[in-house]
Fold:
Amino acid sequence: MENISDVTKGFVDLRRHMWMAGIEVNLRRLIWQIAVTGKYISAKIHESNRKLAGFENIYGEEQLALDRSSDIILESQMRHSGFVREYASEERDSIIQIGKGDEQYFVTADPLDGSSLVDANLAIGTILGIHNTSIPEVGGKSLVAAMYITYGPLITMVYSAGKGTHEFVLNREGEYVLSGENIVLKERGSIYSLGGLRRDWLPEHLEYIEYLESEGYKLRYSGGFVPDINQILIKKGGVFTYPALKDNKRGKLRLIFELQPVAFIMEGAGGMATDGKEDILSIKPESLDQRSPIYIGSRFEIEKASEFLSKSGT
Ligand code: AFP
Structure:
């Protein structure tokens, strides 16, 4: 499918674009229902008046943390979609059977990543993976689609269903309209996002970062995985890393809920995502909350990371 012209793409909404891309009808419907959920979660963010968890409302009831209320909204939408058999979320410690048992899809969610940034009015996001296999078995190969929603100055939704990576913006009429089609990263970029504390990095990671700095890369790090990744995708290059640490070889970010979906999206844009050595989408999770180091972005920077990290011999 050739790209839609800049003149008309603002009139192409998400449903039409997915139909034109030839995406399977139930998957199109599910992606659409998840995108709509982004509007409800955004309303919750505004309603919370940027208060974080732990407050009581005027009736003395505990106010749900935004990430928990976002999780409830998502789970409810998935339960009533008609296409989802299992739902797993970063906010829960087990997988929920929400279908009758014959539905096609299995959804993983980080309902509101970066929720601790709400009080500072920084951008945050929702990350989802749609699998065709029961969630205890998920590896990257069972992903059929992935998406993230960014709650920033605009609400945008980026998704891939294996036919390119595309961005949509929520317009004033409440429609998601095409804003970036078949996004493709350059061979290398000029920005980097660095998770973790410098004093906790392993020597080979520090050497890699010092190399990037010697090459003049500019630091772009908000503390929100979704907006930080989104910047690398929309600027078409660069690297986000949250590495293995001296006292925690698995780093911080979660393989199933955060890294697999974003790796699927980034690879759909010609980028790469590894744990420093192995492709994220090739790693078989051993547990639901498994964490992994992450190097994700354009090819040059990810291959360069593997070069530096292979010196460690670990
Ligand atoms: P919160 O969801 O607790 O705000 O954590 C956000 C996050 O999981 C991810 O979005 C960021 O990339 C990463 O943590 C930032 O971690 P540091 O605060 O250690 O830099």
